[in-house]
């Protein structure tokens, strides 16, 4: 019997997790990733609730527990750097927090022998027909698949091709920010600082790499337009937003310009009436991003991947029925996470009116 061929776009978390489950269930799985190699970047990710069951099913739960950052809590400061309170570790770290690269490395390792990975390439066209999907790539030769799954993030190429422009599905939460790392001159190992002022917040913590400080500047914006701007423009926007901050902010603004892992993004959610069209479906941030402020992105990606695979396995080849069941099962969970993401955006400088739109 010929195995059904599935192409997954995206090799971060949702994509490799889905690849593991689909391969286990007898599919021939390929993963295409625009990065030149397995992703080994990102800061800490946390797991909550049912995500632990997924990690156990993937066979990596014990390994992830071994990478626990063991965060001890976060000190709250005003915009001048004066302490105003303290938050427990669970406020940001969830039930278990690990450096993201440890999760992505594990997911790639457990799938590399059985799944075909194609790096440094991306889907350029999708044409559905009666018996499958013709897929064209930016670099590689065109191929035929039975199903295509978009697991390629907020700016998903699969979603853009199958559902239309990003502007029709992306909801900005009034918040943008930059992340980077720098030497830990404060000795913040396993603890954090959250400095809040009008329309802006600075969060820094020591975890992951020894003697390194992870820094996040977040500030109110009216659109995600800065995501597409140059680094100089992004840095200037950050400096303007934090020009009145005292404490460690001035020193960290200088460190920002020297960072070689500078990353800028806006807090956005993805809202779609349906997560599939024909033989194409979406999983994780590509289909229903709840925004980093929700604290549920990684858990949601893992749970979504397992739900999609489980429903495909039980539908006996009826992908339409499987996609419908997957959405019915997962949408209430996603709706709760997105509501939490909108609410939490205000803590980091987002506008309450935009966050609730």
Task: Explain what you see.
The structure is a single chain. The chain has 357 residues and is an alpha/beta fold. The protein folds into 2 domains: 5-41 and 100-169 and 271-344, 3-Layer(bba) Sandwich (FAD/NAD(P)-binding domain); 74-99 and 170-268, D-Amino Acid Oxidase, Chain A, domain 2 (2-Layer Sandwich), CATH 3.30.9. It is built from 12 helices and 18 strands. The strands form 4 sheets. A 7-stranded mixed beta sheet has the order 5-4-13-14-15-12-16, with helices on both faces. A 6-stranded mixed beta sheet has the order 7-2-1-11-18-17, with helices on both faces. Strand 13 (192-197) and strand 14 form a beta hairpin. Helix 1 (14-24) packs parallel to helix 5, helix 2 crosses helix 10 and helix 10 (297-314) packs antiparallel against helix 11 (319-345). Pfam families: FAD_binding_3 (PF01494). Residues 1-19 form the signal peptide.
- The percent range for helix content is 25-40%
Question: Total helix count?
Answer: 12
Oligomeric state of the chains present here = single chain
User: Quick one: CATH class of the largest domain?
Assistant: Alpha Beta
How would you classify the helix and strand content by structural class? alpha/beta
Biggest sheet, in brief? 7 strands, mixed
What is the alpha-carbon Rg in Å?
Answer: 20 Å
Which homologous superfamily in CATH is the superfamily of the largest domain? FAD/NAD(P)-binding domain
Q: Write the CATH fold name of the largest domain.
A: FAD/NAD(P)-binding domain
What's the end-to-end separation, in Å? 49 Å
State the order of secondary-structure elements, H for helix, E for strand: EHEEHHEEHEHEEEEEHEEEEHHEEEHHHH
